[in-house]
Amino acid sequence: MHSTAQREQDILALWDRAAGRARGLRDHALFAAAGAAPTDPVGTGNAALLTLRTQLFGAPWRLRAACPVCHTDCEFTADSAALAEGLAPAEVAPPRITSGGSELTLRVPTLSDLASLGAAPDSASATKLLLARCLGETPPAAIDQHALDQIEAELERCDPGAVIAFALACPDCGHAWQAVIDIAPALWAEVQAAAERTLLDVDALAREYGWSEAEVLALPHTRRAAYLQLAGAS
Known about the structure:
By secondary structure, the chain is of the alpha+beta class. It has ten helices and six strands; from the N terminus they run H-H-H-E-E-H-E-E-H-H-H-E-E-H-H-H. The protein has two domains: about 5-60 and about 80-90 and about 180-234, no CATH class; about 95-160, no CATH class. Strands 1-2 form a two-stranded antiparallel sheet. A two-stranded antiparallel sheet has the order 3-4. The longest helix has 27 residues, at about 185-210. The radius of gyration is 22 Å and the shape is elongated.
């Protein structure tokens, strides 16, 4: 387990690599930091991000999702370590469907496939692009809605960790729904908030005492908090 100081340095290093970049490049930096390869299935990439998140912030994970009916902001807590352990790829046969009397073999989408969807103007175009990549030469236009439903079910069977959802019930209106959490932007929000807090600490103590960033980061958090309190009182 990394020390608090080391985790803080790791967070700042990750923030340096990803801050200010477009969504696709930022996600790529996060997956790379987590040790995920572009050829990995999406679920494997999600598991790697959750493991990285646990290393940086601990297992308890505070999340929120807006109720789709009354728009109440609903907060809940998950365990990122347990989630990561539960996303091991299933040992199943490659996904296959029947469309137009022919049997089609798909491959599970990878992180590079996911990255390619950033160029799609809308969700329908993204679906066609993903099908084109995962079905090879089969034209997406030949796939009817029934086949699309089959594809979705098969891909979920083969890579259940590709989509992370939580069963929630709104405390205000009682509506129950499945809240889908996109792991990469959720992790990035934590990284950005933590990095900004650390930079504010460094700025305050550097101004007050003339310490370098390395000297501030080396302080135990209890002592740093005491100095910040003294700096605020001066």
